[in-house]
Design goal:
By secondary structure, the chain is mainly α. The protein has helices at 10-50, 54-77. The chain has a domain at 29-81.
């Protein structure tokens, strides 16, 4: 007779569900503020264009867009569409 316990995954599934419920308000806040913050950053990057630093402007705009994209992907992965 096998005396070793067989993993069922019940505890892991339940703890993952609890973690998702705990993190849900923080995810909602991230989703709500990600686009406005990125928009302000992109507008600020336009000042770099006006000052003649176009390389830094494009870099800032791309980083802000990437941040919004990663944030939306994380929410999709976590199942909060």
């Amino acid at each position: 007779m096998n005396a070793l316990a067989q993993p069922t995954g019940v505890i892991a599934d339940k703890s993952l569900e609890m973690l998702a419920n705990i993190l849900d308000p923080m995810i909602q806040v991230m989703v709500a503020i990600s686009f406005p913050v990125a928009s302000v950053i992109m507008i600020g990057a336009c000042f770099f264009f006006m000052l003649g630093n176009s390389e830094r402007a494009w870099n800032t705009i791309m980083n802000a867009g990437l941040g919004v994209r990663i944030n939306s992907d994380v929410t999709i992965i976590l199942g909060d569409t």
